[in-house]
Design a protein that fits this description.
By secondary structure, the protein is of the alpha/beta class. Helices cover 26% and strands 27% of the residues. It is built from 10 helices and 15 strands. Helix 4 packs across helix 5.
Amino acid sequence: MKAITQDMYGSADVLVLRDVDTPVPGDDDVLIRVRAAGVEQGVWHLMTGLPFLTRAFFGFKAPKNPIRGREVAGRVEAVGQNVVGFRPGDEVFGTAEGTFAEFVCAKEGKIALKPVNSTFEQAAVVPISATTALQGLRDSGRLQPGQEVLIIGAGGGVGSFAVQLAKALGAQVTGVCSTAKLDLVRSIGADHVIDYKHDDFADGARQFDLILDTAGNRPLSVLRRALKPRGTLVIVGGEGGGRWTGGFERSLRAALLSPFVGQRLTGLMATERQEDLRYLAQLVDAGAVTSVIEKSFPLGDTPEAIRYMHDGHARGKVVITV
């Protein structure tokens, strides 16, 4: 089969389209013929090996799994003898290791039936980005109907899902984004939008019950000014930091400070779960959530897709078609 592989850490230049062996499903695996694969920030981190902390889990000198990609949508080709929830021919979406390929093996608990009303491309960008947004709002953020929510990075991959999910959960939503993404953020349901290039959301004019920060570079002191005295801040991931921790120290500082202030400050490390995929599929089929995709790339152009995503200018998500 064709797959995007890498033999060393580095820029997108280390990625090579190669012929490799088709994976053989184990007893608990589902073999998927990949139709589309989402491109998300985790792909860049595993490709570059940055921050260095990630190498402790994924390989010190090179990735343990040489095939990139984690989000997937496709058709089931075969199932292991212990798999009971899927059968060949099922259209599914979820996460697996090595989805930038023609076939991939996934664990049964990491996939679900694809939303009926979605294309494979639309479904492929949901599993990580939408799950992160959902867990940030519902679980870490403890969002309640009627609360005021500020979503920073509202025009990006996680942010575009967060705007829609916050509305589906009954919140009043303000999105922070660049000038080029204002119309997009309005179109997906934000009640208010703030252009971060021209306006300061932390000027004291408004405060919010919940802030979901998907942009990853503002100091805690700035974010806390925009938060109500008993509000909650959820920091999603870590971008823009040093080569060792990559910005995750902000989440650590938030956790250390939180017990001593009235506001609740926390970081988020999302976990992909089948029950969340099923819930998201229901929202998609109900029309409450739609995947925002700016560009699709063929498998052979995966390096360019990753460069485009990492530049930060994509409106919503970027997807690979196989």
